[in-house]
């Protein structure tokens, strides 16, 4: 097998493509021949030693991937050789093969391709857990989605529309706003025009008739959080999904008090760990939604696995719409 090896986490430039012994799965593991792997923001942080999970060195980055089971370890009952699966294991995806815990593998139904599957678990599990489980989104409610043209943002648009919500999508360019409308967004906000320090709050107010959004989905953080929260509706739910802009915001706690609003943390990984049965049921629901055409990952582009450094550069430029996928 071959893989991109991180022996010193000082950045993307330190990754090297190396031939390694193909491993044998231990108890509870499967060997997967990787067909496609997607690039996520944590994949950048982890090779810079900036991610909360710090795997022992050396390691192969690549948190999310899809492929074919080539061997199964002792005790694995629900997967078999030749089966198509997707997996989000945190590392191992940027190569030709990897070992994965069988419990983390999602069996793929017929008609679920590897490229879509490699870009599926993280964004749809996060967005469904956020909007449906944590926010209890109802038909007819209004959702404001920040960072709406990114991976989790595009997934959130589709899930919110499937739930019957009205969607306001906020993104940084007219091109990204156009993509959001193609995905079903009812209104868009270009926040390079309506900036957090400028008219963002006024525009949210205008688009909601002064009532504010019932749910705010925020994977961005930074300067966007306070003006967005100040716009929220009475009994609104503010979903803290992540901090893609960098800084973690400091919100005055009088704001939830005055609005009767909830500040809701969204950590899908811990949900999956603490409530595995509920998570498995959710993933089944999402697979069904995919097969019914209700949701489908937005693939910005696919690149050969050999062009990982180019993929990282594209992601770092913040020009990506949806997901980047590497293929073998």
From TrEMBL:
Database matches in CDD domains: QOR1
Domain Enoyl reductase (ER), chain residue ranges per copy: 11-326
One Pfam family, short name: ADH_N
Name of the protein: NADPH:quinone oxidoreductase
UniProt organism field: Hydrogenophaga electricum
